[in-house]
Write a structure and sequence with these properties.
α7 links the parallel β7 and β8. The longest helix has 18 residues. The relative contact order is 0.17. The protein is α/β, with parallel strands linked by helices. The strands form 2 sheets. A 5-stranded mixed sheet has the order 2-1-3-4-9, with helices on both faces.
Length: 253
């Protein structure tokens, strides 16, 4: 029997954890598969081990793992595979299929542009967009954000699109915001490239509020999961042909 295990990042923020749970509950209600469980990589219960065990206890023999992660950084490349490898050693008869993170998709960039326009209204050439990523030492993440910035520039029709990070990469949030505000002739629109709210989004919001109090024109777009496209992508992955294929990473006995 097939099961689906959704894996979110986890956060100390109750608001962020509740957002992730609500998101997964909405997906579960639209997916006709009896065994579905949510889990978190860290900081929030239930953790991956517990979510996996719940699937097994409910009769699962094949578990499709769907990570709710935007890009393929360390958690996707190391932490999740290590945990699943350990679980497979404990449950060798369970076949595990692992989906990819969301990645850089045209429809996700379309959705991000819709969120920007929905909050900022009509954009002017003097407006600037600052994309704020979680940050990673993985060079692929910088390459991904270069693609994201280019895609947003094209979709929004503005030239000034910058990227900064909350950790592990440069420029950091404060420096990136200083730079973009220094020469801004219009509004600075801040796009957190984060799926859900949490302590990181709160850090962005505090910095935005600080700059607004200094007389700067800023808008914070908020987390990406406000757009329905993410729910649609997860539902598509949960309901696609689940037999092992080249599109899945497979752990089996």
């Amino acid at each position: 029997m097939r099961a689906i295990l959704y894996i979110a990042h986890g956060t100390r923020s109750k608001k962020g954890a509740n957002e992730a749970r609500k998101f997964v509950e909405q997906v579960m209600n639209r997916v006709d598969i009896p065994i579905q469980e949510i889990s978190f990589l860290e900081l929030t219960e239930p953790l991956m081990d517990e979510g996996f065990k719940r699937c097994v206890e409910r009769g699962a023999t094949i578990i499709s793992v769907i990570p709710l992660f935007l890009l393929a950084a360390g958690h996707i490349k190391q932490d999740i595979p290590q945990t699943l490898s350990s679980l497979h050693a404990r449950f060798p008869l369970i076949q595990i299929l692992v989906e990819d993170p969301f990645g850089v998709q045209e429809k996700i960039l379309d959705a991000a542009a819709e969120l920007v326009r929905g909050t900022a209204g009509d954009l002017q050439q003097k407006d600037r967009l600052l994309i704020v990523g979680r940050g990673s030492g993985d060079p692929q993440i910088q390459a991904d954000f270069s693609m994201i910035a280019g895609g947003m520039r094209k979709r929004l029709g503005i030239q000034h699109v910058s990227v900064c990070y909350l950790a592990a990469a440069e420029p950091r949030l404060k420096s990136g915001m200083d730079t973009v505000l220094k020469n801004a002739g219009g509004r600075v629109i801040v796009l957190p490239y984060l799926l859900f709210s949490g302590l990181l989004s709160s850090e962005i919001e505090r910095e935005v509020i600080k700059r607004i109090k200094e007389g700067k024109q800023l808008l914070n777009i908020g987390p990406l999961s406000r757009h329905h496209i993410f729910e649609e992508i997860v539902i598509e992955r949960a309901t696609e042909n689940w037999l092992p294929s080249d599109s899945h990473k497979v752990l089996s006995s």
